[in-house]
TrEMBL record:
Organism superkingdom: Bacteria
Keyword Flavoprotein listed: yes
Name of protein: NAD(P)H-dependent oxidoreductase
Keywords carried by this UniProt record: Flavoprotein, FMN, NADP, Oxidoreductase
Family: Belongs to the nitroreductase family.
InterPro entries: NfsB-like (IPR033878), Nitroreductase (IPR029479), Nitroreductase-like (IPR000415)
Every Nitroreductase domain range: 10-186
Originating species: Flavobacterium zubiriense
Length: 210
């Protein structure tokens, strides 16, 4: 646990990346697996994770992300896109996956499937889309923690115009919406932010014990 806390103190939202340094395939695969293993409500994972390697696409995305330099300078750009047209078939596919993974007949999972459908599919569309977007934050946290362990810097971003990013990547036709962006790489020595003390609420201010 001490190492985990050391990693949390080490990481920060990197403002300037060293564009000459690239993440190895091995480390990238570790991060992808950490994202894949993330928790989510019901285990449904109602989102896609898009790794944008094409430099031309990243240059197009930069203006939609308030011109932030990390979009083009970081080693990798990751888009978390929540599903905005979650359907009954999506839940059925998940149940089939459970059946195959755990060697349980699909019929034995019908009650769980019906429960999920009754709780999710009956939500108003806007509420359902907010719910699927929230799930991406759980995946982002796994990314942040895994990257910190590998001493890879990450900048999580909410500063972008989703509609523009969606249009650039053609996400709407896939039933997806950009909910989060993360840039990964290695901090530039000229990034003064790395020397700032971490500012957080004190334990007394943050926690309430009842």
């Amino acid at each position: 646990m001490s190492t985990f806390l050391e990693n949390q103190n080490w990481r920060y939202a990197t403002k300037k990346f060293d564009a000459t340094k690239k993440i190895s395939n091995e480390d990238l695969n570790t991060i992808k697996e950490a994202i894949r293993l993330s928790s989510s409500s019901y285990g449904l994972q109602p989102y896609k994770v898009i790794i944008v390697e094409n430099p031309e696409l990243r240059a197009k995305i930069q203006p939609a992300a308030w011109g932030q330099s990390q979009i083009v300078e970081a080693s990798h750009l990751i888009i978390f896109a929540n599903e905005i047209q979650l359907k009954e078939q999506d839940i059925d596919n998940y149940v089939i996956n459970i059946s195959a993974t755990r060697n349980i007949p699909v019929e034995a999972l019908s009650g769980y499937a019906d429960f999920m459908k009754s709780k999710i599919l009956t939500l108003p569309e806007e509420t359902k889309n907010v719910w699927t977007a929230k799930q991406t934050y759980l995946a982002l946290e796994n990314l942040l923690n895994a990257a910190a362990e590998l001493k890879i810097d990450v900048t999580p971003m909410e500063g972008f115009i989703p509609e523009q990013v969606n249009e650039i990547l053609g996400l709407e036709k896939l039933g997806l919406n950009t909910s989060l962006i993360a840039t990964l790489g290695y901090r530039h020595e000229a990034d003064d932010t790395q020397h700032y003390k971490k500012v957080r609420k004190s334990e007394q201010e943050l926690f309430i014990t009842l």
